[in-house]
Amino acid sequence: MPKNLDSPKRIRYALQELFAVDLEKLKKKVNKLIIQRFERLEELPTKKVDAQELEENDRKIAQQLQEAFIEENKKSKRNVGKGKITKSKEKSIKEKRKKKRGTTNNLLASKNLLLSPKLQNILGETELSRTQVVKKIWDYIKKHNLQNPEDKREILCDGLMKPVFGKKVTMFDMNKLLSKHLYNPDDVLEQKPVENTHND
Predict the structure, then answer these.
(1) Is residue 115 within 8 Å of residue 126, measured between CB atoms?
(2) HEC states along the chain?
(3) Where is the region Disordered (predicted)?
(4) Which of 143, 108, 142, 146 is CA-nearest to residue 128?
(5) How confident is the prediction along the chain (200 residues), in pLDDT tens digits per residue?
């Protein structure tokens, strides 16, 4: 994989952030898929790729990742109870997994977050879930044709996007930058009474 491209680890973290999943158990398989994808891209002669073709390829890779994730879960379920794990340890492991999975993934994916004023200017909304924000950002990018025609991973930001993402941004850095513009409503509400006491 060329040095100028993002590392598989960085791309894997971006995928985890984007889809609100934990790929740590699958990191070898995911890294292998990422490297295969880049190697395939290097082998192809340089040509303009149709957006639908890119989306179809991305869909296939997402499906492979999902199948690998499902397969890994099946393996771990089959291995539970084998070896030296006692029933009490097994139960506590399951409870920890349920708590972790239930709180982080569901909260990240579905909880409505407050958008910064700069992000509100782009999306025209004050509150969305993280997945809705990502979807609407991509809708905006496609609607305004902001992907670099020579490198579809790079977004050439317009006037509304520059305050949030800068002049240009890769699809992998976008999620990290978005985090700075999304706020938990509970945190904001907790701070408001403190601000009001100063105004008295």
Answers:
(1) yes
(2) CCCCCCCHHHHHHHHHHHHCCCCHHHHHHHHHHHHHHHHHHHHCCCCCCCHHHHHHHHHHHHHHHHHHHHHHHHHHHHHCCCCCCCHHHHHHHHHHHHHHHHHHHHHHHHCEEEECHHHHHHHCCCEEEHHHHHHHHHHHHHHCCCEECCEEEEEECCCCCHHHHCCEEEHHHHHHHHHCCEECHHHHHHHHHHHHHHHC
(3) 76-106
(4) 108
(5) 445 456 888 888 888 887 778 888 888 888 888 888 888 877 766 555 566 777 777 778 777 877 777 777 777 666 655 555 556 666 667 676 666 555 555 555 678 888 899 999 999 999 988 888 888 988 999 999 999 888 888 899 999 999 999 999 987 788 888 888 888 877 765 544 444 444 44
**How many angstroms separate the CA atoms of 5 and 23, rounded?**
21
Say if CB 179 and CB 108 are below 8 A apart: no
Backbone angles phi, psi at 10, to 5 degrees: -65, -40
**Joined tokens for residue 89:** 């340890």
Q: Where in the chain is the domain with CATH 1.10.245.10?
A: 111-200
Q: What is the domain class of 111-200 according to CATH?
A: mainly alpha
Query: What would the two tokens of residue 53 be?
Result: 């073709």
pTM of the model: 0.44
